[in-house]
Amino acid sequence: MSTSTRPEPQAPQRTDFEQDFLWGCATSSYQIEGAANVDGRVESIWDRFAATPGRIRDGSSGAVACDHYHRWPEDLDIGRDLGLNAYRFSIAWPRIFSEVGGKPNQKGLDFYSRLVDGMLERGLQPWATLYHWDLPQYLQDRGGWNERSTVDAFLELADAMTRKLGDRVKHWITHNEPWCTAIIGNFEGWHAPGLTDFKTALQVSHHVLLSHGKAVPLIRANVPDAKAGISLSLHPLRAASADPRDIAAMERHDALRYRWFLDPLYGRGYPARILELVGADAPAVLPGDLEAIAAPTDFLGVNYYFPETIADDPGHAPLGARVLPPQGEEITAMGWPVEPAGMAELLARVEKDYRPGPIYVTENGSCYEDVVAVDGRIEDTRRRHYLMRHLGALHDAVKAGVPVKGYFAWSLVDNFEWAEGYLKRFGLVHIDYDTQQRRLKDSAKWYRSFLKAE
Ligand code: IFM
Predict the structure, then answer these.
(1) What's the rounded Cα separation, in Å, for the pair 126 and 406?
(2) Which of 70, 222, 240, 416 is deepest in the core (most CB within 10 A)?
């Protein structure tokens, strides 16, 4: 169906949600900031990875990105003008510490302090993510998240940031999408640091979760009225067929993709099924680790993009379960299926399985190829419809009693989409990377009209 003939979806009204519902956009440091060599920032694993030929599809890097480091006032103005009441950003660790055990870099601290003041001046509640994948390269050189000492280094970052910003930032997300840090970065290898070792990936996942659990009480100690949580990328899962082998494969995948992270966070330890399947690849877990990981949190962040369909495939490492490419007409430019109902289904499942307290959708969005018309308009109907339909699903979840308290669209602006470089655009706001001009796409204008109830 062509874009122009797509039927207009029904969307809820802002007033269908509670008055204090949070409406935000999310971004991350490496994807938008640029200014890679400015004010004492050191190399991150993504700088190193991007500099390695063949790693990034268009050969690019985040060195300049959206130049948000310098243009943040304009970006925050856009957020305010859209009518957002919250903004999710992440902290670039390489701006804060340039060596193990060193002193925090004042210029890095001051940048985030200015940024947070800018949010508050514009009525945007700041939501800080401590780790959105840009590990300093000097830590990777010592083994990265595979090394237990990286947990201590992370706690130094958490301490420095919460001391600096805790008088103004009350909402802290320790990690964004530990699955990607651990499995994509260390087993699938198409994200930094680009390793392909399953045992390492599982050890990384353990250290990431441990660093989360140890950071939570530290955040509380440094920040009056802190709300601390973590953001996971989750998918509702479907078996490829009713064949018991596909169903069993889906259950194995689920145990790693979903329960491996959620079970320990909510005090149940690692799923026995996975420990049994991975044998000697299981991570080293020291006494007290599981208790630390299960530190009570104030909210759970859920990042939802699409459902996954799983087939049995005995030769497919590590669990003999393969994610099938999507079928059907509705697929984004990332090749991801569009299924808004999957979001309501996922949120209901998380609530039923874990009762995590308030849930925030900390990312949801879509990637399409955008065309800038001669008059500057960007008619991104499919992204606009994706947003409208997912807000419909969000409303369904709320009506079903799931305690969802906020929604952050991914992303405010087009940005560096990791291994895809700048070839994939998720922004509600278009970036012309030659001129750094920002232009609202139709999706952004729709979000504005929704938020301002125009
Ligand atoms: O761009 C990413 C983001 O960094 C993490 N979540 C998924 C987004 C889209 O791929």
Answers:
(1) 13
(2) 416
What's the 3-state SS for 41-84? Answer: CCCEHHHHHHCCCCCCCCCCCCCCCCCHHHHHHHHHHHHHHHCC
Q: Which two tokens stand for residue 256?
A: 């790693």
CATH of the domain at 120: 3.20.20.80
In a domain, 9, yes or no: no
What residues does ligand 1 touch, defined as CB less than 6 Å away? 28, 31, 177, 233, 303, 363, 410, 417, 426
Amino acid at site 198: F
Q: What is the pLDDT of residue 5?
A: 67
83 C-alpha to ligand 1 centroid (Å): 23
pTM of the model: 0.98
H or E stretch covering 90: strand 86-90
- Point out the ligand 1 atom lying closest to the alpha carbon of residue 334: 10
Q: For residue 305, give the ligand 1 atom closest to its CA.
A: 7
Cα–ligand 1 centroid distance for 98 (angstroms): 26
In the prediction, which pLDDT does 328 show?
77
Domain count, the chain: 1
Q: What residue spans of 122-197 are helical by DSSP H?
A: 137-141, 149-165, 178-179
